Amino acid sequence: MFEAILLTVITASTPLVVAALGELVTERSGVLNLGVEGMMIMGAVCAFAAAQLSGSPYVGILAGIFGGGLFSLLFGFLTLTLVANQVATGLALTILGLGLSGQIGEVFVGQPGIKLQPIVFPILSDIPFFGRVLFSQDLIFYLSVALVVGINWFLFRSRTGLKLRAIGDSHSSAHALGINVIRTRYLAVMFGGACAGLAGAQLSLVYTPQWVENMSAGRGWIALALVVFASWRPWRILAGGYLFGAVGIGQLHAQIVAQNLGIVIPSQFLSALPYAATIVVLIIISHNRRTTLINTPASLGKPFVPDR
Amino acid sequence: MTLSEGPAAVPLLSVRGLTKLFGSFAACNAIDLDIAPGEIHALLGENGAGKSTLVKMLFGVLQPSAGQILWEGAPVTIVSPGEARRLGIGMVFQHFSLFEALTVAENIALSLDPKISLARISDEAASLSKAYGLPLDPKAHVADLSVGERQRIEIVRALLQNPKLIILDEPTSVLTPQEADRLFETLFKLKAEGRSVLYISHRLEEVRRICDRATVLRHGKVTGACDPKQETPASLARMMVGSDVAEVHRDAGTVLGDIRLEVGNLSVPARTPFAVALRNVSMKVRAGEVLAIAGVAGNGQGELFDVLSGEYPVAGDEAIRIRGKAVGRTGINGRRLLGAGFVPEERHGHAAVSAMALSDNLLLARSQSDRKAFLSGGAFSVIRFDAIRSATRRICEVMDVRKSGEDPQASSLSGGNLQKFIVGRELDRQPAVLVVNQPTWGVDAGAASRIRQALIDLAKAGSAVVVISQDLDEIFEVATNIAVISEGRLSEPHPAGTLTLERIGLLMGGIHESHSIPEAAHAH
């Protein structure tokens, strides 16, 4: 029973972790992309369509990454090249993505999908309990863990990551040092889009292998909240992602238990919990201004126009 | 000049006819300059004289419109700061280009070869900073460091590239006299190693003390090249301004009147981790008095100004009194209505909205205190544009604000002219109490002397004036009494005539003399 719940928690948390990691990199470069939900659903529909047409879920994953990345390029062009307002553009991206994906996915509604099969590690998966939970998962789960480690190394150990953080802290100083602000931000935005697309692919190939309109169901927004919740730190994304995922699954079980006991808990209350938790965490971390200042990208959301 | 001294002296850097046009305006106009190896060369000039434009061209930030740069005798094109560094030019900016969220070592690493590991950079930075007497912790976050420490990062960063020429832009404006002395020692060490220094400053005493030669700029042209040790501050100033700088006059023995501003035992906790807590601050400022508050940046000046102006009211209403009325919990407008005026430190974004016209900025500051003059229509508060425009014109005339057009955007004015306007905006009301923070920070000599004279005249007319400043020359010019702020504590005021530069320096460094400041001695 517990093992089964844990497996569903992992499945529910992985898309949150992956999408939030991508957004973390984007925001560390100083760009606020509120279009995670839109990029995610575009990834989901692209992945599903490609898997159906090719018969391979791995082609679906690639298509999801590509779809999310390409969609984010639109955001990049509008906000970085044309210097449009990032908040408004991000919101528009979400609305566009939800509509466009519905249009693309219309022909796939009701079709049974192809589920991405787990990759079982021979010996490790024999370890009782943990082996089965951690080493007989699908590729996207393994990727999510690799991404946490990789991004943490990239941001805090590599020179390119240092440059990315420098741009996020003060783009004009970075520009003065000869760092290419716009190009780095384009790459960061596209990385965020690709991650959101991968998270979308997980939804339509693993979580519920079928296409349903609006199937991202607000997970993009939770991923955005998660970035702040984690105060822009990769490992905290992992922890926070699983916390939010567990809350989401726990809410279903709590509903059933409560119903059996004859108590009615409005489902809206429980689905609002991740956001409420984010607000609580925000209040707590804002008490320690120093850590916030050191972790929060200072130029987040500010457009950069080189003067010369 | 150098060429005539003989064939051996090939200048390290020569500039021939260097010109930079912005549209039709020549920021630099056919500038010639020679810097010899191993000399400290001063670049003097008022704001807008073209110093920063020249330096930006030398460092590859801007490209010249015409003219030539010769490096060790060979013509070069410096396309980027990276190129300048490769040649051997290092730069320490006036406004630091540091990343607050990163550590000292990470900041330095960003401008170095990416192949060098962070650990090695940390080690080299630590040993360099020790060798040149510039203590630094490579692992500290910049956000936690003082302005002086931040400057050290910039200097160490420049030195790590082993430059032949180091350009320093107004380096001492943020330092105590003792810190400045230490910097000069560092510069002399660099000179002894055969490196050259281009030293930009408007502090004439300093230039006379440490520089071997000086080039003076005015309106984008070279107006003089001299040995500063042979000149007097007055003669240097004349070259900078083109005419004699009006000396600031102060009548001795002014009779002081009643107490206009009083602060009693005020303690305010720090608002942010980077702010300074005010501890037991007391002061009394009388009519006719200029109380100057000296201190190194970041010792509570901004915080003191905030509580005096009412931008951040304090808990105890009785702690601050303006003209006898308790105003601790009153906001800015309430205090202004009592006849007080305030000029904050930041010109852009605090004292003025950069993107708005001067007349709008005038209305914003005085819409409440001069409601009758500028607004009509009772509750509708209709703006009387004619009244505001004529007041703007009056202020610009009185303070000699030079601007393009009738009512330009605040951002289009040079620092000195905008500062004259902002100070003039308050003086125009003849405030009974005026509190000014860093009135001439980054302002050219002509504008600075004008502003200082205006402050003295205001006090002479019977107002109480508080001047918070880091510029000791300014403090001695304007002050009747001098107090020193250090770590949020304010010393007793001393009559200006009884204090020496050395004594103030010690007070600024936080070394309190127990007999003069008993409460501080207890706290230590």
CATH topology of the largest domain in chain B: Rossmann fold
Number of helices of chain B: 18
Task: Report the count of strand segments of chain B.
Answer: 23
Chain-averaged pLDDT of chain B: 85
Helix content of chain A: over 70%
Tell me the CATH topology of chain A. Answer: ABC transporter involved in vitamin B12 uptake, BtuC
Approximate helicity band of chain B: 25-40%
Oligomer: heterodimer
Largest inter-chain contact set: A-B, 24 and 22 residues
CATH class of chain A: Mainly Alpha
As a percent range, the share of strand residues of chain A is under 5%
Largest sheet of chain A: 2 strands, antiparallel
| Spatial ordering of strands, largest sheet of chain A | 1-2
**Through-space gap between termini of chain B:** 56 Å
CATH architecture of the largest domain in chain B: 3-Layer(aba) Sandwich
Shape of chain B: globular
Key structural traits:
heterodimer; A: 308 residues; mainly alpha; 14 helices; 73% helix; 1% strand; B: 524 residues; alpha/beta; Rossmann fold; 2 domains; seven-stranded mixed beta sheet; six-stranded mixed beta sheet; 18 helices; globular; disordered N terminus; disordered C terminus
Q: How does this structure look, described?
A:
The complex is a heterodimer of chains A (308) and B (524). Chain A has one domain (2-295): ABC transporter involved in vitamin B12 uptake, BtuC. Helix content of chain A is 73%, strand content 1%. Chain A has helices at residues 2-28, 36-54, 57-81, 86-105, 130-134, 139-157, 159-169, 171-176, 181-207, 219-229, 234-261, 267-271, 273-287, 289-295, and strands spanning 119-120, 136-137. Chain A has a two-stranded antiparallel ribbon with strand order 1-2. In chain A, helix 1 (2-28) packs across helix 11 and helix 10 (219-229) crosses helix 11 (234-261). The model of chain A has no long low-confidence stretch (mean pLDDT 91). Chain B is an alpha/beta fold. Chain B folds into two domains: 3-241, P-loop containing nucleotide triphosphate hydrolases (Rossmann fold, 3-Layer(aba) Sandwich); 259-523, Rossmann fold (3-Layer(aba) Sandwich), CATH 3.40.50. Helices cover 33% and strands 23% of the residues of chain B. Chain B is built from 18 helices and 23 strands. In chain B, the strands form five sheets. In chain B, strands 13, 16, 19, 20, 21, 22 and 23 form a seven-stranded mixed β-sheet that branches. In chain B, strand 14 (320-322) and strand 15 (325-326) form a beta hairpin. Chains A and B meet through helix 7, helix 8 and helix 14 of A and helix 3 of B.
